[in-house]
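Worked problem 6 (solution included).
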Amino acid sequence: MSRAGWAWLRLAGGAAVLGVLLWRLGSGPFLTGLRTVDATALVAGALLAVPVTVCCAWRWTLVAHGLRVPLPLPAAVAAYYRSQLLNTTLPGGVLGDVHRAVRHGRDAGHTGRGLRAVAWERFAGQVVLVAVAVPVLVLLPSPVRLPFPLVVAGAAVLALGTRLLVRAGGRTRGGRAVRRDVRHGLLRRWPGVLAASALAVSGHVATFLVAARTAGVTAPVLTLLPLALLVLVAMGVPANVAGWGPREGIAAWAFGAAGLGAEAGVATAVVYGVMAMVASLPGLVVLLVGRSRAPAAEPPPGLEGVCHG
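Solution. The predicted structure is:
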């Protein structure tokens, strides 16, 4: 299937999730989420987004430096805000990442490395998120609690499979490139990558908790924490409509399983989505400033293809 075909398939997947929620729950939870958003929640979301964005941008600079496409932190922060804005307003939820990858790669004179730097940066963030979520889902009591033996067995299978793939891929040119990227872009900079990712996860969780309280959910933080991490993991699925779809679907299921009501889960996810959209508005300034400084004859950067890391 072509890249365009996959993009449409991912978009259809997110739309299907939203359609099922509207069919089963109606529009009430979505409208409730929109009605309950207030200035306090929006300001809190915008303030929490600042350290989260800086941490993610820092992670990107570390990976990019390892792949020999250096990027200064101020430029990375600006580009990350721009990508967040595009992710929350364009279909697919990843076109902002494609944009910053292509733009940085062209500026650095190596588009391929620019694309790979963003892909590995996003991949590292997801790995750390899962690494944080799994212990929480194992240790804290919740309806989505993971059995410890199953987690150990899954980790062992994953480690063995990864080792076999690396050994097999090391004999090919592509496999050697992957090993170089992982070694130089991630492993040699793992303390910074880990710290930046962990801080970003903390900011996202705090934002979700604010969204839950704004939506009227009064459950204890320890009850909401596993649900928040589960929803954040689901948000990494690149089958959405500008970020909407899997987030609302998993929130509905998790909150329903926790006895909080699927409607409360959807309302919380909607509040979170609105908070994230407003928090990304500084990216509009970056877009406008970038356009005003661009030469008239320079074509706008393309959004060819879709990647997610």
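Discussion: Residues 132 and 279 are 24 Å apart (CA to CA).
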